[in-house]
């Protein structure tokens, strides 16, 4: 693996770095100084008014359609179709991750090869149709097929939205907007609990879990069509911007060397992502979060019910932890953008996650303390997502390298999620030492590895400063060709 220490950058590239910096000057006419801040704020409001609502609704829909299996379990799905078998339920959960992992890298690259609005809309339609069809399932095999297709659709969509944001927003604008985007997943948990609670009181000849799948799946079909038709694709091709706004957007992107102008797949960027050891380390950190997230997705209502609530009450009591998690995530990621730092916030959120799993593991009789622990794991499971995704987006030089590395987060990080369906067996209820203990251990590992990566980035930036001198405003950085090895490129801590 490439360790990217002083010997990892080719000798001729180091020469280029030195000469590049010697000729670099601060250009008062550079893009950074030409941007009209008031016009930029108006442009951001326009972007946020369309891009954020549509992508947020997609994530809300995706999480409802992925996570409602946990609510449906309490409403009789496991008893009716799965012979009340924990193993069969675990396989149903597992099936989603199989296709989700296999399709994530090519699925994310689709937004580079084709207009992003078409790629994202197609992904939404695939999972929406599959999620709605779950209402018609009559046996174990049909549920698995539907979950496999939900995984395909969400793989095309999941990390491609992060890539899409990087086409429109600057580095220090992404985390806050990703927090709003991922926050829809937290709200999905809250809405999912409320919807499931309401559906559980419907008296009909149709099973309530079937009604749940229809109510949460069908609207997503309409959403997929709207995304394909109305979501802005790329700044250089979208009719969403007028000429003045397009020029301003190009200046904004150019000021941070984000204006590649290449809409196809750059295979050198693909190679860089696969051969860069940092891709795998950051993916491991993300996998630690995925274990918590998949545990929550599949078992959160069950964990809440184990605190002494009825199944119907448990659906309702899932709402407050999700609501608090949403507020915490927005605040944390806002300050991460303001300070332009990711690592310290990732460590802080994993520490909250660690506390939650620790309380659930060691507290056995005080159910109020255990319920407080569920708030901590929701914050830890969700607030970390935009932080890590922003870290990847900030520290990958080119769009293609970014697309592949973001795909890594789903393809390779979900190995941890593959274990979650099997670490909460009913026989260990209500203490689940295996499930709580594994999540606790992975949170500890994530804290240690994140601290090591921060130390590496700091030392690597200092090394490049010694070789090149400090980057100057207006200096052009050849990220499209040299990716994160480009002279002038610096990592975000």
Automatic annotation (TrEMBL):
Region (Disordered): 1-22
Ranges that cross the membrane: 43-62, 89-111, 118-141, 147-166, 178-199, 211-231, 280-304, 316-333, 345-365, 371-392, 404-424, 436-457
UniProt cross-references to Pfam families, sorted A to Z: MFS_1 (PF07690)
Record's bilayer topology term: Multi-pass membrane protein
The keyword Transmembrane belongs to this UniProt entry's keyword annotation: yes
Domain Major facilitator superfamily (MFS) profile residue range list: 51-463
Subcellular location: Membrane
GO molecular function: transmembrane transporter activity
Alphabetical UniProt keywords: Membrane, Transmembrane, Transmembrane helix, Transport
Gene Ontology cellular component list: membrane
Regions of compositional bias (Basic and acidic residues) in chain numbering: 11-20
Protein's UniProt name: Major facilitator superfamily (MFS) profile domain-containing protein
Species per Swiss-Prot/TrEMBL record: Kwoniella pini CBS 10737
């Amino acid at each position: 693996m490439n360790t990217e220490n002083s010997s990892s950058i080719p000798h001729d590239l180091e020469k280029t770095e030195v000469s590049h910096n010697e000729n670099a000057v601060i250009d008062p006419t550079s893009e950074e100084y030409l941007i009209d801040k008031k016009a930029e704020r108006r442009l951001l409001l326009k972007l946020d008014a369309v891009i954020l609502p549509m992508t947020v609704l997609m994530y809300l829909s995706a999480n409802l359609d992925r996570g409602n299996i946990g609510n449906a379990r309490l409403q009789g799905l496991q008893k009716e179709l799965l012979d009340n078998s924990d193993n069969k339920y675990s396989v149903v959960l597992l099936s989603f991750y199989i296709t989700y992992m296999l399709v994530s890298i090519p699925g994310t690259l689709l937004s580079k090869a084709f207009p992003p609005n078409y790629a994202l809309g197609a992904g939404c339609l695939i999972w929406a149709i599959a999620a709605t069809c779950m209402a018609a399932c009559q046996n174990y095999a049909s549920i698995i097929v539907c979950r496999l297709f939900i995984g395909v659709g969400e793989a095309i969509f999941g990390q491609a939205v992060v890539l899409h944001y990087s086409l429109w927003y600057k580095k220090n604008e992404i985390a806050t907007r990703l927090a709003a985007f991922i926050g829809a997943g937290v709200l999905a948990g809250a809405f999912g609990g409320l919807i499931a609670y309401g559906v559980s009181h419907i008296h009909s000849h149709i099973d309530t879990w079937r009604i749940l799948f229809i109510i949460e799946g069908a609207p997503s079909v309409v959403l997929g069509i709207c995304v394909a038709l109305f979501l802005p694709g790329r700044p250089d091709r979208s009719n969403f911007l007028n000429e003045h706004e397009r020029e301003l957007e190009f200046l904004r992107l150019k000021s941070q060397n984000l204006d590649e102008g290449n809409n196809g797949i750059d295979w050198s960027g693909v190679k860089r992502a696969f051969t860069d050891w940092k891709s795998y380390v950051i993916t491991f950190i993300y996998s630690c979060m995925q274990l918590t997230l998949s545990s929550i997705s599949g078992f959160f209502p069950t964990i809440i019910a184990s605190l002494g609530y009825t199944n119907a009450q448990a659906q309702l009591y899932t709402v407050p932890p999700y609501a608090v998690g949403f507020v915490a995530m927005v605040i944390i990621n806002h300050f991460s953008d303001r300070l332009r730092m990711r690592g310290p916030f990732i460590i802080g959120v994993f520490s909250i996650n660690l506390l939650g799993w620790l309380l659930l593991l060691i507290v056995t009789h005080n159910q109020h303390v255990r319920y407080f622990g569920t708030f901590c794991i929701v914050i830890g499971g969700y607030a970390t997502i935009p932080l890590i995704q922003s870290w990847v987006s900030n520290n990958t030089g080119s769009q293609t390298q970014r697309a592949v590395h973001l795909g890594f987060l789903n393809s390779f990080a979900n190995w941890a999620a593959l274990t979650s369906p099997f670490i909460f067996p009913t026989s260990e209820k209500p203490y689940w030492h295996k499930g709580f203990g594994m999540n606790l251990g992975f949170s500890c590992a994530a804290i240690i590895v994140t601290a090591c990566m921060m130390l590496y980035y700091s030392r690597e930036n200092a090394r490049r400063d010694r070789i090149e001198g400090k980057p100057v405003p207006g200096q052009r950085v050849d990220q499209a060709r040299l990716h994160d090895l480009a002279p002038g490129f610096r990592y975000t801590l």
